Amino acid sequence: xxxxxxxxxxxxxxxxxxxxxxxxxxxxxxxxxxxxxxxxxxxxxxxxxxxxxxxxxxxxxxxxxxxxxxxxxxxxxxxxxxxxxxxxxxxxxxxxxxxxxxxxxxxxxxxxxxxxxxxxxxxxxxxxxxxxxxxxxxxxxxxxxxxxxxxxxxxxxxxxxxxxxxxxxxxxxxxxxxxxxxxxxxxxxxxxxxxx
Length: 196
Hints:
196 residues, mainly alpha
């Protein structure tokens, strides 16, 4: 009888890592390369001139705090799964989902704050500096939505008692991806603070 893939440990003979973990790491690597290209393009374009300086909305700082808190709740959920504390696992995942959704709402509100400060994505009044900010925020938000779906799937599995100390692959992968998304946002926020 073959065991279910989820019941296998995080490591498999021959690969060292579970194939799902390898795929996740490749996905993360491709996202890193994409944002490296975006931020490099930002610096190159800024140095060409016709670059409007503007203040970043305070809402971006609030969103940065929200994403950091969501990373902490995700880590708590992971630690709870390792200890078979299923109630805390579910609570941690629920908090992570709520904070992730609050972050997305905050990003949407930040778009409004940018428009209120006459910073536009496109049109006659747009400047490349603002357009880059919208692209960085928007592409990150898209990936955060995929992270929320991932966390929701793991929460569904946890509600069915399929996540515990002997079935850690799904929560391990979700935690890794969520921490990556949080770290990516903090990098983008600091990058924009230092280079806008």
